[in-house]
Amino acid sequence: MRKLLTIALTIGFLMTGFSQENPDFLLWSSSHKLTIDDFGIKKSDSNSGLSFAQFSMDYSVRGFDFMKKNFNKNVKNAIIKSASWIDTTQNVEYSLRYQQTLFDMAEIYTRRFRKELRRK
Question: In angstroms, rounded to a whole number, what is the distance separating the alpha carbons of residues 59 and 79?
Fold first, then answer.
């Protein structure tokens, strides 16, 4: 059992060392508001709406993180650029404000999740 735990921890540590942030994910920030460049797909027709954004709330524990009491730092809220689109021909400012509001709401729920993890 001890050997298995040692191997698992070593693999987890190595995976943590080689992982990199995904450039397709834009983390929520109070200082950065969404722009057209944050959407991977630019459309010129509004048959399916003015915009769509794919948000992701990620939670991961890697390597020796299980030994820490503070798991809430591992919760992240991001927009997935390549899965998000915007119509660039009409109501661009409206679409950006709408998607920013949804992104801000996702951050509220992310913070609630962090708060629950802190209480456990």
Answer: 14
- Do the beta carbons of residue 91 and residue 77 sit within 8 Å? no
Residue 99 in 3-state DSSP? helix
pLDDT of 73 higher than 90: no
Residues 96-117 have pLDDT tens digits of 999 999 999 999 999 998 888 7
**C-alpha distances in Å from residue 34, one per residue of 65, 107, 114:** 31, 14, 23
**Verdict on whether the full-model pTM lies above 0.70:** yes
Structure tokens at 56: 């992701």
Going by C-alpha positions, the residue among 99, 65, 68, 104 that lies closest to residue 81 is 99
